[in-house]
Design a protein that fits this description.
The complex is a heterodimer of chains A (323) and B (306). By secondary structure, chain A is an all-alpha fold. Chain A is built from 13 helices and no strands. The N and C termini of chain A lie close together (10 Å). Classes of the chains: A mainly alpha (323), B mainly alpha (306).
Chain lengths: 323, 306
């Protein structure tokens, strides 16, 4: 039963993977098709040279063969080469990915750690001043532009504090994660981008924990626990909290795709050397192959991530229906 | 994803329980009445309407109230502090901030509403067809939705905006290219729950064709879900559009937009704070109003909350 379910889940992922690659391939083909004729405007290039470039890039072969070759390359981890410097896209991805993960994982952890106490406090003091204040905070988090919040933080924590001669935070200039460097300096660079990024998460999750906690507190077993004289503290933190937080796991799981892409705007504002900023810089230089290579890589990660999550759920939760 | 999250958060049982009593009035009357009772939601909706009026009347407002042209440079008065001459100050080329904000409203709200319209039309059409015909049609269309939603949205926005020269229309199409997927899923779900009800069977038994069943019955019954999806999407679209403008991948200068005003402001904000404060606050307040109104509409219209 389980094996059959897993097999079906794998089978369902295959058309999605093919769809993702076909879509990016077509887009890339359209742009590369513009790239080579563009060279014809260069007076130093003879028609023979252009034909040679085309042959080198494999553009003289039938389109389906190009697609299959490209797909085969990806199975070996080859996501193409940059149009600008000819370096393999995969080497850039591997260089930048740890930095991005460092930022997004920190932000998600911060979001979880802060949203649980906020949500629980809100639920326990429903309608009170504290609860209303938290509601305002989370409504703000939904509406504030991340890049603007980043600029305002830089303005205060980097520019003003520096101007006042107080300890200040660096606004950008973090260097590569595993290229050496001082961990403390690294941490200082991480604070502001991680805070900006986690603000959105905690806005969403604290609301969720709050309503989930309110729901759990009205359950019969909580009433039973209270009726038998259990201390309120024990009721809330031992029985209710555990059941209220479990659904949050699913919600946090939904953010897994954002591990790679979620930090883009923040990376740009704070000059964080992550994968999002790489994509952005290459986009400005019209390096189509790098942009599409990273995008395909990220989309495939999302599909595989969802697959792994489903399989894990099936293995962990015996109640899951195999249908 | 955000819409789904919002829906989950607000489906707490306390709220569902409050609405169990159900008077025998029409759905629309009841919903509109409930919406009008939500003071905060109505105020937020009023603000959005006001901003839309400002956007439409931008040429008039800049001619009669602020007396500046959004693109007119005045290099002798650049970086003017907010005051009586320039209410919200001027930028590095001496352009009036307030006038540019008023014109920027056309971009933000224009793209916001256009995108909502595009993704709703397209998403609903796909959702209706997939849900109604089922089987292979459903499988194929839903796999297409899976493919589109597999891409990280921001990567897709950036990739598409370097391929197509961004204008109001292309930018709306680019943002809607991602948004239609979740609308399609939502409408499809609604269709699946309606299509086997007795009234559908009855209509079919008197000889109604597919088109009539879809347009005459499934569509009207899906409209509440679509209204909810539309009102929750507006704020997010305005945020995304502002971010793309800020990154230099959306509406290009010299056309004023709230997002691209902040791109330049970043260079000068150390000495001219107003350049970064006013556009940011404008975006924030607009998105806040859109979200609050969206929540109020959801509370009033969402059939799942009844």
């Amino acid at each position: 039963m389980l094996a059959k379910y897993l097999l079906r889940r794998f089978a369902a992922a295959i058309p999605v993977i093919l769809g993702v690659t076909i879509l990016t391939f077509l887009v890339m083909h359209a742009t590369a098709g513009n790239y080579v004729p563009g060279l014809a405007y260069n007076p130093d290039l003879k028609p023979a040279d252009i034909a040679r470039i085309k042959a080198n890039l494999g553009l003289d072969r039938p389109i389906w063969l190009q697609y299959v070759t490209w797909l085969g390359g990806m199975l070996h981890g080859d996501f193409g080469r940059s149009l600008i410097d000819g370096s393999p896209v995969m080497s850039h991805i591997l260089e930048r990915l740890p930095n991005t993960l460092e930022l997004t994982i920190t932000a998600i952890l911060l979001g979880v750690l802060i949203s649980i106490p906020l949500g629980v406090t809100g639920a326990l003091r429903r309608g009170g001043k504290v609860d209303n204040f938290f509601t305002v905070v989370s409504t703000t988090g939904f509406a504030i532009p991340q890049f603007w919040l980043g600029l305002i933080l830089i303005l205060f924590f980097s520019v003003q504090l520096h101007a006042w001669g107080l300890p200040w935070l660096p606004s950008s200039g973090a260097y590569a994660a595993f290229g050496g460097g001082d961990p403390l300096d690294r941490l200082l660079h991480l604070i502001m981008p991680a805070v900006v990024l986690s603000f959105f998460y905690l806005s969403v999750w604290s609301r969720f924990v709050r309503s989930s906690m309110v729901e759990v507190l009205s359950q019969d077993y909580v009433r039973t626990a209270r009726a038998k004289g259990m201390a309120e503290r024990r009721v809330v933190y031992l029985h209710a909290l555990r059941n209220a937080v479990v659904p949050l796991v699913t919600l946090v799981g939904l953010e897994l795709p954002a591990l790679v892409s979620g930090g883009l705007v923040v990376e740009v504002v704070f000059g964080w050397p992550g994968i999002g900023r790489l994509l952005y810089e290459r986009a400005l230089q019209l390096d189509y192959t790098t942009v599409m290579g990273i995008t395909t890589f990220a989309a495939l990660l999302v599909v595989l991530g969802n697959l792994v999550a489903d399989v894990l759920y099936a293995l962990l939760d015996p109640r899951i229906r195999y249908s | 994803m955000i819409d789904e999250t919002l829906a989950k958060i607000e489906l707490a049982p306390e709220r569902v329980a409050e609405r169990s009593e159900r008077p025998g009035r029409s759905f629309w009357r009841e919903s509109l009445e409930r919406l009008s009772e939500n003071k905060m939601g109505m105020a937020a909706g009023g603000l959005i309407a006001l901003l839309a009026l400002i956007a439409i009347g931008a040429p008039l407002l800049s001619a009669l109230v602020t007396h500046y042209d959004p693109a007119r440079q005045d290099l002798q008065n650049n970086f003017a502090f907010p005051g009586r001459v320039h209410w919200l100050g001027t930028d590095e080329l001496g352009r009036d901030t307030l006038t540019r904000l008023i014109w920027g409203a056309r971009i933000s709200l224009g793209i916001g509403f256009l995108t909502v319209a595009i993704q709703l039309t397209f998403g609903a059409a796909i959702g209706l067809i997939a849900g109604y015909y089922g089987r292979l049609v459903d499988d194929v269309l839903m796999r297409v939705v899976d493919v589109v939603l597999a891409f990280p949205p921001i990567f897709l926005f950036i990739g598409l905006s370097i391929l197509f020269r961004p204008s109001t229309v292309t930018l709306s199409l680019i943002i809607a290219f991602v948004g239609w997927g979740s609308v399609a899923r939502l409408v499809r779900g609604e269709v699946l729950s309606i299509k086997n009800r007795d009234f559908m069977l009855a209509t079919r038994s008197i000889g109604a064709r597919d088109v009539r069943l879809i347009v005459g019955h499934l569509l009207p019954n899906s409209i509440p879900v679509m209204i909810v999806a539309a009102s929750l999407a507006l704020g997010q679209i305005i945020l995304i559009e502002a971010a793309l403008d800020f990154l230099g991948l959306g509406i290009q200068p010299p056309t004023a937009s709230w997002g691209n005003m902040l791109t330049n402001a970043q260079t000068y904000f150390v000495h001219s704070v107003w350049l970064v404060v006013f556009p940011g606050v404008t975006i924030f307040v607009t998105v806040l109003a859109a979200n609050l109104f969206g929540n109020a509409v959801r509370d009033a219209f969402d059939p799942r909350l009844r």
